[in-house]
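Task: sequence design from structure.
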């Protein structure tokens, strides 16, 4: 492991300070830090490298920021099986679970091959507009929701080739176990351990008392079809997406390539739940 990618939250001065220290730390060990030129030049961190080169050549990706920064890094890695080390400088830090004071001890363990790397399910998402298809890779969730006009709409749901139901709601979330503590949790969906191979289908404000979140096996393909005229938008990981029109379909299935995440050696998943979400407190 010789080439270490870095992605930082540019709006956070602390991230720039840590990045500058980290560059010196890596270079002192004959390692090559790869920083996107947009991040490097705007923060006095050298010339940097083209964005595609950073994500094509890195053997480890260090994220300095919050969960949103890690989601962006995961998207740009596409299908590459490169471990991601997330350092929490944000407010929640559910994905970036390594604290800043743990960065260098954890990095030493990573370089020595003595740290646990876990797999996180990702989703392959296709938005079909007639015969035209737009593809995305998602770590947390894909959300179909109303756009500018505030009105509920009908969405036909098919799971594993079988009709599930037509939900009438403000929207719908298809979430991975990793994303179960994000938007899914806010709409009453279950918390699912990230090692579990399943997906969650959770309606947003359904117009039916019996329409509840459903957990389905990870091998099943999910198809969502917009069956009425409505202003609807599909969003992937809250960062990219496009509008949907009547008859358009969203096809969701587990991506063959999971995201590899460096697990904090200091705490378990349940400890993160207690710390970040105050789970189980009275």
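Answer:
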């Amino acid at each position: 492991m010789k080439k270490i990618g870095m992605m930082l939250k540019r709006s956070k001065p602390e991230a720039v300070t840590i990045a500058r220290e980290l560059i010196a730390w890596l270079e002192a060990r004959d390692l090559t830090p790869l920083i996107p030129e947009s991040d490097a030049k705007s923060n006095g961190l050298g010339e940097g490298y083209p964005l595609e080169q950073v994500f094509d050549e890195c053997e480890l990706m260090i994220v300095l920021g919050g969960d949103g920064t890690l989601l962006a890094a995961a998207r740009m890695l596409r299908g590459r099986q490169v471990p991601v080390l997330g350092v929490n400088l944000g407010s929640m830090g559910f994905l970036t679970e390594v604290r800043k004071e743990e960065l260098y001890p954890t990095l030493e363990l990573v370089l020595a091959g003595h740290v646990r790397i876990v797999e996180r399910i990702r989703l392959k998402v296709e938005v079909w507009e007639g015969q035209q298809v737009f593809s995305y890779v998602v770590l947390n969730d894909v959300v179909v929701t109303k756009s500018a006009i505030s009105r509920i709409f009908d969405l036909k749901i098919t799971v594993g080739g079988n009709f599930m139901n037509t939900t009438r709601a403000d929207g719908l979330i298809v979430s991975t176990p990793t994303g179960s503590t994000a938007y899914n949790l806010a709409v009453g969906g279950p918390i699912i351990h990230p090692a579990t191979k399943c997906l969650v289908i959770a309606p947003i404000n359904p117009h039916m008392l019996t329409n509840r979140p459903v957990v389905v096996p990870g091998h099943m393909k999910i198809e969502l079809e917009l069956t009425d005229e409505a202003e609807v938008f599909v969003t992937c990981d809250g960062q990219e997406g496009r509008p949907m029109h009547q008859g358009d379909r969203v096809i969701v299935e587990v991506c063959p390539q999971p995201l590899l995440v460096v697990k904090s050696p200091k705490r378990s998943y349940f400890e993160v739940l207690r710390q970040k979400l105050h789970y189980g407190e009275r």
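The chain has a mean pLDDT of 92.
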